[in-house]
Amino acid sequence: MRAITYRQYGTPDTLELTDLPDPRVGPGEVLIRVRSASVNPVDWKVMGGYLDGLMQVDFPAIPGWDVAGVVEAVGLDTPEYAVGDEVIAYARKDWVQHGTFAELVAAPVRTVARKPKRLDWHQSAGLPLTGLTAYQLLHRLGTKEGDTVLVHAAAGGVGILAVQIARDLGARVIGTASEGNHGFLREMGAEPVAYGDGLAERVRELAPDGVDVVADFVGGVLDVTKAVLAEGGRHGSIADGRVEEAGGISAWVRPDSADLQALADLADAGKLTVPVAEVFALEDAAKAYALSQTGHVRGKIAIEVSR
Questions:
Q1: What does the domain layout of the chain look like in residue ranges?
Q2: Alpha helix (H) ranges present in the chain?
Q3: Segment (H or E) for 84
Q4: What are the Enoyl reductase (ER) domain coordinates in residue numbering (predicted)?
Q5: What is the SS3 assignment for 91?
């Protein structure tokens, strides 16, 4: 099979298109013929060695955890799926080596859900990691109908989905973003506020009594969070471990088939969409990484592996 690999930690130019043996499919796994994968910042951070103390990487490594594709084979004791099923997965394993930037990937069923019928292949591939990150943090924070939720980095890959999920939970959503993204956030159902000096005051103008929930997807905003949080409010971050010292939750997304299926169901109910910024061919994965590293992408970056 064709696959993107890297043989050592490095920058996007470390990536190369190679030919590898097809992966084995073990018990409790499905072999997925990849239609689309998506790029997340964690992918190039792992490749750069920034998570070396957290995750084991065995070289040569295939990057990528998000996938949308068709079941090609099933392993032993895998009654949940059959050959030909269209699926998505946050196919993260306990170590980094056999990722989704390849024509085939073996994924544990605990990471897999049915592909949303209303989303195309690239939108579907962009859903798992970002969707689960937003979904799991908002649910851990007990977000409920009537809450006012502040989403930091609301126009980012995770924030866009958090806005929609919080709205579906019945919350009012305030989202921080650059002014160029304010119209987009209004379309998503959020009330936008601009980054920068005076952010806490701008949020307080919209919510004089404070906000009930703060979901931080950017980091470095703990002082603002504390300044706008209502008494008894809840807050969490995926990017700032200091939140625990301030009574918040430090979150790390985990594969969960039931949570992922809930997201797919929201998409099929017309309550969740995944904006796709750009699609790259498999052999152009390095260009996709470079675009992701700019930090100025609204929506997901997809890798088209097959048609």
A1: 2-127+274-304, 131-250
A2: 41-47, 121-125, 128-140, 157-168, 182-188, 199-206, 222-228, 257-268, 285-293
A3: none
A4: 10-303
A5: coil
What integer is the mean pLDDT of 141-158?
97
Which residues are CB-neighbours of 260 under 8 A, at least 6 positions away?
A: 88, 89, 90, 111, 112, 113, 127, 128, 131, 132
Among candidates 48, 14, 67, which has minimal Cα distance to 302? 67
Provide DSSP, 107-167. Answer: EEGGGEEEPPTTS-HHHHHTSHHHHHHHHHHHHHTT--TT-EEEEETTTSHHHHHHHHHHH
Q: What is the C-alpha separation between 211 and 233, in angstroms, rounded?
A: 7
Predicted confidence (pLDDT) at residue 28 exceeds the cutoff of 90: yes
Question: What is the three-class DSSP state of 210?
Answer: coil
For residue 132, give the nearest of 89, 85, 100, 189 by alpha carbon.
89
Fold of 2-127+274-304: Quinone Oxidoreductase; Chain A, domain 1 (3.90.180)
Specify the fold of 131-250. Answer: Rossmann fold (3.40.50)
> Which residues does 202 contact at the CB level (< 8 Å), separation at least 6?
193, 194
Torsion angle in degrees (nearest 10) through CA of 276, 278, 282, 283: -170
